Amino acid sequence: MRDPRTIPIPISTAPRRPESTRLGEARQAVAGRTVAVVSGKGGVGKTSLAVNLALALAENGARVLLVDGDFALGSVDVLCGLAPHRNVSAYLDGACPLAGTLAVGPRGIAVLPSASGRSDLSELDSPTRTRLLEDLGTLSRRFDWTVVDLPSGIGSTGMALARWAEIPLLLTTPDPAALLHAYATAKLLAARGRTPRLVVNRVRTEAEGAEVARRFARTASFHLGAAPELWGTLPEDPAAQRAAADQDPFVVAAPRAPVSVRVRELAHRLGTDEHPQGSAHAGGDRKDLFLPVPAA
Questions:
Q1: DSSP secondary structure string, 146-204?
Q2: Hey, which end of the chain has fewer CB within 10 Å, N or C?
Q3: pLDDT of the chain along its 296 residues, tens only?
Q4: Which CATH superfamily is domain 29-272 in?
């Protein structure tokens, strides 16, 4: 377990020049890019992917902010081995600015922890949600990457964060229930003009992941008019379970494990993506972020 105190992070408030950060052999785009990891169903490995993806992005010196977007009952701090002194509830209650809640995680990433057991934070009201997204947009521009772990399901706060992000990553497993819930999530995102990238977790073979993605894309194309592109498959790997039990992310604890290799490949692909979808804080005004979520 790491130092339980929240460690102040020196973050300059001066405007930053666009810069490049090496990610493997790739050149990363302008600083301030954002990724939201979303799933329709709990238990598919979403938080684990968010944590390990953030650490993979930080491997070569990129400045990374990891946000626990499940404000009422998140677990990012647990998977990072942290016991933070503050969490997002201090900001939402008006006790400190958003940057004042940050803690230092593995590899020096900044972690914005969630509250634990605050049911009143499970769904934020519209003014609070607007303030949060504005402040998060300002904070994210001080980092090369912001990775947001969203709550499972299709609540208004989680969907607003998914639409806010430049790159929504939709995680599922081959389980039929997980696929059904992932499709419902893709449908809600499509209603706001967003097509997520698809990642299939816990596959036995790469061919299984490709087949899951093919069937998902066929259904989405027919009903939604747009198909999520497959951006990666993650194998069922005992290293992931052992690392979670030890509160030690698998890209750190088992860097050569197959699942760690695949997550680093996903990080590399994110760094070389030349066609981001754009977002509210990095591509113009998006008033639709604050509209009610349409019915599934």
A1: EEEEPPSS--HHHHHHHHHSSEEEEEE-S-HHHHHHHHHHHHHHHTTT--PEEEEEEES
A2: N
A3: 544 444 444 443 333 333 333 333 332 334 589 999 999 888 999 999 999 999 999 998 899 999 999 999 899 999 999 999 999 999 999 999 999 999 999 999 999 999 988 888 989 999 999 999 999 999 999 999 999 999 987 788 999 999 999 999 999 999 999 999 999 999 999 988 889 999 999 999 999 999 999 999 999 999 998 889 999 999 999 988 888 888 889 999 999 999 999 999 999 999 887 655 544 444 333 333 333 333 33
A4: P-loop containing nucleotide triphosphate hydrolases (3.40.50.300)
